[in-house]
Amino acid sequence: MNEVNKTLYIPLYGKSKVSRQGIILNDPSAERIWKEEAFPIRGKSKSKWLAYNMAMRARVFDDWTERMLQRNNDALVLHLGCGLDSRSMRVKTHYSEWVDCDLPEVIEIRKKYFQGNETYHMMPLDASRPEQIGSLPECDTAIVVLEGLSMYLTNSQVRGLLQALDKRYRELHVLMDVYTEFGVKASRYKNPVNDVGVSKLYGIDDIESITDGLRIRFVKEHSFTPAALVKELAPIDRLFFNLLFRGKLYRKIYRLYELKA
After folding, report:
1. Number of domains in the chain
2. What residues contact residue 153 under an 8 Å CB cut-off, 6+ apart?
3. How large is the angle between the packed helices 48-71 and 235-245, nearest 10 degrees?
4. What is the pLDDT of residues 76-101, one digit of tens each?
5. What is the mean pLDDT of the chain?
6. Which residue would you say has higher pLDDT here, 5 or 110?
């Protein structure tokens, strides 16, 4: 696996660690896969604070996907850059069809732990190649999860991906996390992905410049760390977590955008 693909083990470790504690995220699949994969992460990637953050981010995406499915019960769910995530199992709302997509080598590893069926599928897809969006299933409405993906794509590639989705589906609901340009600069020194060899990341300061000329539009910004989830931490951990991940500096680094067409 290349360096970018190896980053999937960082959120996997975090979700597994937090799930074992019985807080924020119930993810037995992450616990099992982490134990079997035994990937040697080190440094900042093993921080308990990062584990809390990864679990909360996953939970925010889960809850948003649940809400979108409750409003659009016939929608197609697309998780692009899915890694070894088990969101399709954590989300309890019924879905008509769910497709998890990632690069071919990642999908091959996924197939060791997940099995497709009539409503759940896995497909190799390179998000930097928008022409591949045409291979995805047809549907009127698509709910698109872009978690931990945009920072590995140039702004032009992110726009190309959104444009391809915009053309493919009549109605779109997208949740996407992004680094800011400041966040990219700061990440050169403190980003856990450095621990697996990633050195090049990309930031977005103006999401509307990415969607300019497309049907898809910015809806609102979400919090990665809702107060209700932070309250599940032990009091002393809650104090330090708030300092690290809930201040103005964190928002200058990292954003979570909802888009719609």
Report:
1. 1
2. 127, 128, 161, 202
3. 80
4. 999 999 999 999 999 999 999 999 99
5. 90
6. 110
pLDDT band, very low/low/confident/very high, at 197 (cuts 50, 70, 90)? very low
Proportion of the chain above pLDDT 70, given as a percent:
90
72: domain CATH number is 3.40.50.150
Angle at 127 between CA 121 and CA 133, to 5 degrees: 60
Whole-Å CA distances, 120 to 29, 79, 189, 241, 258: 16, 11, 39, 36, 24
Residue 237, both tokens: 């951990």
Residue 13 has pLDDT above 60, yes or no: yes
Domain range for 13 is 3-260
pLDDT digits (tens, 9 = 90+) for 44-81: 557 888 899 999 999 999 999 999 999 999 999 999 99
